[in-house]
Write a structure and sequence with these properties.
The chain has 2 domains: 2-130, Ribosomal Protein S5, domain 2; 134-191, K Homology domain, type 1 (Ribosomal Protein S8, Chain: A, domain 1). Helices cover 34% and strands 36% of the residues. It contains 5 helices and 11 strands; from the N terminus they run βββαββαβαββαββαβ.
Length: 195
């Protein structure tokens, strides 16, 4: 699977209608949608699709036709995201009506091509990255072992955050790639781990 950490835009025109596709990280989807609606006051539709992982590592998907005929825009856009195996991304397609009705088939082609053009732009600019599943664990350690924990976290390339200072130690949270988290667990097996 691939993911994206920045915005990229693609476009497509058909019979005078313009389709502007904005591909972006899922975490920025809602705020970007609100911003685009303010910036594109003359647009007639804001079609969207998203794919992201929830806290149980399940893929959640959504789409919105925003008034376009059912099955003509949101679902085809989502299918492009699926086909490219993108995760934790969203796409918003802003449509400016050009005066000619495109029909369902024409809309499917237009929305699909706009999304594909955005993805092709992301590929050509090297913006798509392999998706790495991260995990997070909390554990308690004594104050004397804290510096060793920090050293191991840095060495393994995982993030360590101090969460709670306790009477006899400290509770820390470590987040990073799953296999690296397992290395942290193996190193500090004498500590009590909580998920």
């Amino acid at each position: 699977m691939k993911t994206l950490h920045s915005h990229i835009q693609g476009s497509f025109e058909s019979k005078g209608s313009k389709f502007l596709a904005f591909l972006l990280p899922y975490s920025e989807f809602e705020s970007t949608l609100a911003l685009l609606k303010q910036e594109h006051l003359k647009a007639v539709h804001f079609v969207s699709a998203t794919r992201h992982l929830n806290e149980f590592n399940q893929i959640l998907e959504s789409f919105d036709d925003d008034g376009e005929p059912k099955g003509s825009s949101g679902m085809p856009s989502l299918k492009v995201l699926r086909g490219e195996e993108l995760i934790n991304v969203g796409v918003i397609i802003v449509r400016y009506f050009g005066g000619t009705l495109l029909g369902v088939g024409g809309l499917v082609r237009a929305y699909t091509n706009a999304v594909k053009n955005a993805i092709d732009g992301a590929k050509s600019q090297g913006l798509l990255e392999n998706f790495i599943l991260c995990e997070s664990v909390s554990f308690e350690t004594t104050y004397p072992l804290l510096s060793q924990c920090e050293y191991m976290a840095k060495k393994l390339g995982v993030e360590l955050r101090k969460e709670t200072f306790l009477e006899n130690g400290i509770k820390v949270r470590v987040q990073g790639e799953r296999d690296r988290i397992e290395s942290v667990r193996a190193t500090f097996d004498r500590c009590k781990f909580d998920k």
